[in-house]
Amino acid sequence: MLRFCNRGARRPNGEKKGRLSMKRSGLVILVAACFLVFSGTAFATQENTGCGLGSIIFEGQDGLLSQTCAITTNGILLNNAFGITSGTSNCDQFTTIASSQKLNTFVADNMDSLAKDIARGNGEYLNTLAVLAEIPEAERPSLYKKLQANFGYIYDSDEVSHVDVLQRIDSLATAS
Length: 176
Known about the structure:
elongated, 10 helices, 176 residues, mainly alpha, 2 domains, single chain, 56% helix
């Protein structure tokens, strides 16, 4: 009798052809699981868990598992955007006027008109800048004078960018 198929044929070590041994497949699964668990957090510290509900729940726990759970909780609940915007959930809110997208857009679109108002020490564009920067109304006149006195610093060349202008205004506004 001739056999035309090779079913049940064994290798010299006793394993069936076409299958991994249980030991080898268990080792592959273990290595893959360790890689997935430890790859993103192998060198993490408590500061690396970000902000959000997960960082509050697992606060003060520096173990790898607790940090992984904190990151996973933050990722699943997607509460980071709310926390950053509102300054809650261990998130820091923007603190400088240069970080506002509305201000960046306003200054970029109105560089020439804003320069004229700063040179005069008053005007509609300067007032709009103060409103967007949330400068209290009582502090605006002194800010306008400070900006006018430092016009050469703010607009130091014809090629100055809106980013530079906004950063210089921010540094003058926050200086005591």
